[in-house]
Amino acid sequence: MGVAYAVGDTTVPQVNAPLEVAVSHFENAVIINPDSIISIDVLAEVHRMSGDYASAAVAMEKVIEKKSLPDAIDYDRLASYYLQLGDYSKAENVLIEGTEVYPDSVSLVQKLADTYTNQNKNDEAIQVLRKLIDTDPSNPLYHLVLSTQIYNIADEINQEISQNYDSLITLNRDARRLSGARKTAAENTIKSLFEETQNLENEADVLIAQAIEELKISLQYDPQNQNAYYTLGVVNQNKAASLFEKRNATEDNNLAAEINEQANEYLREAMTNYEKAVEIDSDNQNYWRSLFQVYTTLGMMDKAEAAMEKAGM
User: Smallest Cα–Cα separation from 274: which of 309, 244, 304?
Assistant: First the structure.
């Protein structure tokens, strides 16, 4: 008769909730030794793992309080817990303190910028990143981070613009069936919404130009940064998409043709940057997928087919 292998240790009771047991264990450890920074630190992490970010934040606050000089990661973790809780004000305070101690921490500065953005403090978000650049103006990563932050703000505006163009298409279609005073009222609504959209577009264009400028500066210091080239491609491709929406919402055929050509110019610029990105990283399927989209829109079907194959589509 063969030897039977034991499955598990039947003398040890099964633990159904290991994280709860771990929390209890480290809470007891802190009670026994309240000055143990390691125990409190691990307790914060276990709370995070269990999804209890409020308790994780309480524990992490104690870690920072007890350390004579908290590490950058300590501020980073505490801010992350508050961000998970949606408490942007507390996250902001933690990150301001952290960046004062560690002004060159990209992670802390970027989190602070994101926190400002979540509170619609866009000027503060850009300002804190520009301060980071002041510490090392030739650092390509800093310019890349700033460009991304600026573009994220522009992209939020672009989403509103996109919704407005959808509304304009519907309003124009409905106005064709109206007459008299109702038609005049509809046309006034269309005019007002179009002017509002134009103002938003101007605002977004200023930000997009700034983002592109920062990306170009980043590439001056690191000409082989495929991420910067790819981001430039994304910025230009998305601008083209916005112009195509504007074209579709334009009733004047001549103006629509002009807008269409502007969109294609942005697409060609996107194509150039995507092509530079794949020159550096030819195995990146995301880059090829983006090229496939641009080639297809520009009617370059042979290149689109080749890009599709390399994208694994």
Answer: 304
Residue written as tokens 């060609």? 268
- Smallest CA-to-CA distance from 116 within 200, 108, 133, 208 is with 108
Q: What is the band of 44 on the pLDDT scale with cuts at 50, 70, 90?
A: confident
- Nearest in space to 225 (alpha carbons), one of 144, 107, 138, 106: 144
pLDDT band at 219 (very low <50, low <70, confident <90, very high): very high
The CA-based dihedral angle spanning residues 205, 210, 215, 216, taken in that order and rounded to the nearest 10 degrees: 100
Whole-Å CA distances, 159 to 81, 240, 249: 28, 14, 15
User: Would you place residue 34 in the very low, low, confident or very high pLDDT band (cuts 50, 70, 90)?
Assistant: low
Report the C-alpha gap between 64 and 13 in whole angstroms: 37
| Structural domains of the chain ordered from first start | 140-310 (1.25.40)
Alpha-helical (H) ranges within the chain are 18-32, 37-49, 53-66, 72-84, 88-101, 106-118, 122-135, 140-175, 180-221, 226-248, 253-280, 285-297, 301-310
**Would you call 290 exposed, middle or buried from its count of C-beta atoms within 10 A (0-12, 13-18, 19+)?**
buried
Measured in residues, the chain has a length of 313
Whether the CB-CB separation of 262 and 307 falls below 8 Å is answered with no
Q: What is the CA radius of gyration of the chain?
A: 27
The pLDDT, as a whole number, for residue 19 is 62
The crossing angle, in degrees rounded to 10, of helices 226-248 and 140-175 is: 10
Predicted local distance difference test score (pLDDT) of residue 13: 44
Angle, CA 28 vertex, CA 22 and CA 32 arms, to 5°: 145
Can you tell me the distance from the alpha carbon of 245 to that of 166, in angstroms, rounded to the nearest whole number? Answer: 8
* Alpha carbon distance 313, 307 (integer Å): 9
Answer whether 278's CB lies under 8 Å from 224's CB. no
- Say what the pTM is: 0.76
